Amino acid sequence: MKLMGVINLDHELDQLNELTYFRAGAAVPFAGRYRLIDFALSNMMSAGVQDIALFVRRKYRSLLDHLGEGRPWDLDRKRGGLFVLPPDWNDPTDISAGDLQHMHNNRDFFDRSTGEYVVHSGSQHLSKVDFCDLATYHKKSGADVTVVYKHIDLPEAEHDPCFRVEVGEDGFVTGIHNEKGHHNVYIDLFIMEKSLFMQQMEYCIAHGDSYFFRDAILKNPNGLKIAAYEYKGYHAVINSVESYYKNSLELLDQEKYNQLFSKDMPVHTKIKYEAPTKYLEGADVRNSLVANGCRIAGEVEGSILFRGVKVEKGAKVINSIIMQKCVIEAGAIVENVILDKDVQLTENRTLVGDSRRPFVIAKRSTI
Amino acid sequence: MKKKEMIAMLLAGGQGKRLKGLTKSLAKPAVYFGGTYRIIDFPLSNCTNSGIDTVGVLTQYEPLVLHSYIGVGSDWDMDRKNGGVFVLPPHERENGSSWYRGTADAISRNLKFIDQYDPEHLLVLSGDHVYKMDYNKLLDYHKEKGADCTISVINVTLEEAPSFGMINTHDDLRIYEFDEKPKQPKSTLASMGVYIFKWDVLRKYLVEDIDKPDSESSHDFGKDVVPKMLEDGLSLYAYPFEGYWRDVGTIPSLWEANMDLLNDEPELNLNDPEWRIYTRNPNEPAQYIAPEAKLKNCMVNEGCTVCGEVERSVLFYGVEVGEGSVITESVIMPEVKIGRNVRIHRAIVDQGKVIPDGTVIGEGREDDSEILLINGDTPY
């Protein structure tokens, strides 16, 4: 069963404030050395998916820089590989709208791929779904489309915008809606046969629709048989600063860390050639995630340090996320703070945010 | 092929016998160093950073790890259309086959490879040393002197001299003698195993040398080719290199060079954006430092999980240090799993070793000057 992948960023809102002023949510750095898109791409890589289209509409400069020709995910292939597809459509008779524009204008991608099934994903839901298992389930169920959900015992604010899946006793979907209290959270992942996908796409365009999932699957005007696949592993939704902060720091729980970075489904990212991190005299690091190339002479607790961060003598970093190449100078203190890349915190400065609403400092600021 | 001004030949076939158990199944240039690198990363990265994009890597002893490690050379930016990195093991020829008999023989046997690029100069490197060097400066010097051969040298003490190939020069650094491991050294200039030759000159010497029977020549640069050039009155110059350079050919020297990196401002800066040391990235997640961990004066790579105490040590990628364990003055190679309440003092632990709970290594010795090697032969 050959799969092809679509990562569709069209309906993802850039709601991470300073972190998404100049980059798409999918390009937001995560867990010390990754960007959010790495997780969806790596899951596809683990399942051997070799034709992947990425539908992007805006703020994709940093994504392009990060993805290149897709080498870290083994997607620099002679045939197929990674296609980053920003809007470039010039057909004056084109009547498609919304994400259907991407699908319609990139028909060639679907037509040329030898994939029989389309795995359609977003980038905001971090998971370790085994797409091969999903495809097998889908085929066995005899459904037209299979949607993936995660049962969340206590839905939180970040789950509010997510769709919910009503599942009947036979494992098929009886309804998809947005009722906040419901536990079965749709994790923005479905699979369907390519030919049916194309057919549904044409139908949606003909009916003036603009959102494939909502208009073809949720509303289900053509009575598709929709199966539900329950996913039980690691899951996080990153759609706000609060959820970003919370889910980042939850990785300091070793069990969660081991789930997300399980050896059998490694997460790949763009390679940087930093030396290992140095802990100097006076370093006091506890309960933290640290990437390479850091130089630590101060105190770090409950935090995530990205690549190349410097924490000078007497500086304190507590419950914070410090992105690539930031410098925390001597005596400076940060607590409950997210520093975007290249921020410099000068000597003896103190920056304290709220533990539920962290303070975010934009890229390249000096404070 | 397009003509190149200079290409490099990197000698990587040596076993490195004095590294004992570390080179059981890999050649010395593949030995790990500095938390994430292999020794060969240094000459390869120096080439990349010096703009040399064509390198032949001569392999012989246990080449599997090296061959798969180098691959197409993309990690060193050497996957090129014109040039790139080429692994050159000994091969069968029309008139028989043999192993590379010496350093010069290894080059002689690859004349066809070098001739493809018709280079003006040939850079000969060794895959045994840890250093950062701009080979372009060496080339400029070589051209300025109009030398047939330029040998890069480093100042050592008179006490160290007997273990190196020593270079004796006139005041203008023109070489008059190559003194291999002299009992009574006459100078303090040691050869770094980095040579630039005028290719047309060297080529003649190699063609001559390759046909000599083994009783007349050991087919070695230091023992045969360079002395012959001196005898013939060719112009050979020494290039004084300043900076960090170490032969990490023994367990103590490998350990010490790793420890050198732990200084606040080490002589060998591995984080210089202008001179990156490239390496195959193992793609491991950020290191996890547990709430009860203590780290001081150490270097730790991605993929490590540290729950114990680590001081004055180097941890390669994927190392686990269990709760209550204390690691001091040690080098822990990739993917070593250290259980709980283990104590390790002044040791090198080889790749993939599993250290059971409660093991004590090297602690409480009366004389702890010896650096212990813990590898597959160690019975736990």
UniProtKB/TrEMBL annotation, chain A:
Gene assigned in the entry: glgD
Tell me the InterPro entries matching this sequence: ADP-Glc_PPase, GlgDAde_trans, GlmU/GlgC-like_hexapep, NTP_transferase_dom, Nucleotide-diphossugar_trans, Trimer_LpxA-like_sf
Q: What is its EC number?
A: 2.7.7.27
Keyword field? Glycogen biosynthesis, Nucleotidyltransferase, Transferase
Its lineage opens with:
Bacteria, Bacillati, Bacillota, Bacilli, Bacillales
Residue span(s) of domain Glucose-1-phosphate adenylyltransferase/Bifunctional protein GlmU-like C-terminal hexapeptide: 284-350
Tell me the protein family, please: Belongs to the bacterial/plant glucose-1-phosphate adenylyltransferase family.
Which positions fall inside the Nucleotidyl transferase domain?
15-151
What are this entry's molecular-function GO terms? glucose-1-phosphate adenylyltransferase activity
Q: What is this protein called?
A: Glucose-1-phosphate adenylyltransferase subunit GlgD
TrEMBL record, chain B:
Q: Which residues form a coiled coil?
A: none
What is a single molecular function from GO for this protein?
A: glucose-1-phosphate adenylyltransferase activity
A Pfam family that this protein carries is Hexapep_GlmU
The Nucleotidyl transferase domain covers which part of the protein?
8-262
The segment(s) forming the Glucose-1-phosphate adenylyltransferase/Bifunctional protein GlmU-like C-terminal hexapeptide domain are 293-370
What is catalyzed by this enzyme? alpha-D-glucose 1-phosphate + ATP + H(+) = ADP-alpha-D-glucose + diphosphate
Task: Give the signal peptide range.
Answer: none
Site note Could play a key role in the communication between the regulatory and the substrate sites applies to: 60, 99
**Which biological pathway?**
Glycan biosynthesis; glycogen biosynthesis
Kindly state which keywords UniProt assigns to this record, in alphabetical order: ATP-binding, Carbohydrate metabolism, Glycogen biosynthesis, Glycogen metabolism, Nucleotide-binding, Nucleotidyltransferase, Transferase
Q: What is its EC number?
A: 2.7.7.27
Looking up SUPFAM superfamilies in the UniProt record yields: Nucleotide-diphospho-sugar transferases, Trimeric LpxA-like enzymes
Q: Where does alpha-D-glucose 1-phosphate bind?
A: 100, 165, 180-181, 191
Q: What InterPro entries is this protein classified in? A: ADP-Glc_PPase, ADP_Glu_pyroP_CS, GlgC_bac, GlmU/GlgC-like_hexapep, NTP_transferase_dom, Nucleotide-diphossugar_trans, Trimer_LpxA-like_sf
Question: CDD domains in the record, alphabetically?
Answer: ADP_Glucose_PP, LbH_G1P_AT_C
Which chain regions cross the lipid bilayer? none
NCBIfam families, sorted? glgC, PRK05293.1
Record's function text: Involved in the biosynthesis of ADP-glucose, a building block required for the elongation reactions to produce glycogen. Catalyzes the reaction between ATP and alpha-D-glucose 1-phosphate (G1P) to produce pyrophosphate and ADP-Glc.
Q: Which family does it belong to?
A: Belongs to the bacterial/plant glucose-1-phosphate adenylyltransferase family.
According to the record's subunit comment, the protein's assembly and interactions are:
Homotetramer.
Protein name, UniProt field: Glucose-1-phosphate adenylyltransferase
This protein's species is Saccharibacillus alkalitolerans
Gene encoding this polypeptide? glgC
